Amino acid sequence: MNGKTKFLIVALATCMAMPASAQRLGREKPKDALPDDMSRNTETTTTSAATTTTGRKLDISKGAQKAIVEFQTAVTANDVATIPAKLAAARAVAKTNDDKFIIASIQTKAALTANDNAAIQAGIEAMQASGSAENPDLAARFSDLGKRYKAAGQVDQSVAMLNKSLAIDPNNVGALINLAAIKESQGLKAEAVTLMQKSFIASKATGKKVEEGNYKFAAGLAYAQRMPLANDLARQWYAAYPSPASMRDSLRIYRDLNRPTQAQLIDLLRLGRAANALSGETDYFALGSALVNAGKLAEAKSLMVEAKTAPKVDTTKSAFTDVVKKAAAAPARAAIDASAKAALASGNGKAMIDAGDGLYGVGAYAEAVPLYRAALAKGGDPGLANLHLGMALARSGDKAGAIVAFNAVTGANADVARYWLMWLATQA
User: Model confidence at 29, in pLDDT bands (50, 70, 90)?
Assistant: First the structure.
């Protein structure tokens, strides 16, 4: 996938392009990765005070101290002419694992200053071979080197270093993310999605919030492969970064991958409207035409009035002509109230749901609630009645009641209720 990838959605009979939301992770610096300057355990100027990244004091042998300090001094001064000889001299007198470790650390710092990836690799591997390196530090260093090789276009070396990092720490977030980006570029899309999933789990386990761009990347990649997992990834994105845009894309992914019925499409787009996630002519046309086709003219009329002032929507276009014309024939509020009263008297559960929908469509959410409750008692479809009861309660401000109703939804509408619950969780 590249930056030009678009989500596609079929809105009724009209095929329309979805805004691009997936992006490459390589453009972002993973916050979980170690900074490029990885020499923090050799910042001291005397070997007697040297410590590891966890604070363990290094035990440097007396016979090696002078040579190590001279080597460190040359590196700190970036005296490239003498660094090779000082390195050789320090290695010659090294006795302990800690001697070898600190020499390798200083060697790595010199390589970083020189921006020499091969030399950085040699230094880190020498640290690992010393026996005194600590696994978290090694994993972070190999991960960072993998990024460096990737930036230099040396993909094979990058993969090798990232795999070294993951062999030490399978939950290294930076390594997982960068390896996923490489796998995606190699066409190994499913592997990339799996790696991104692992990075999310690893981030959350350490209490770190996943970056929004990473959710976009993973959801977009899974969607492009038509993977059902895209639905879950998009929901995770919305839960972490609730916004009209993330709701809109989450709903569009679900709509395209699951092909909901007309009634389910209406209830999903009603959620989009509640979340201020209807955007552009595609969304308003999709909901408006579905409402007209379902005979919900009062709600369609209300929607078309709203659409007239919505950004980037021109309801005078020919695509809207039929919707606007039919919506204009909507019944008056008095007729809707009369239908509700008649439905309650009839004892017919389906008629009660339909009448409740009429009130819901004109924004009389609290007044629709008794109709849906009555429908549940009179044999109306419990899945649909609970779904619409939850919607009416949510829109009227009864969050607790809505949660109970949505959680009672089973069957074909369970997924629709799940999306409403997802939005409800973000409301005060």
Answer: very low
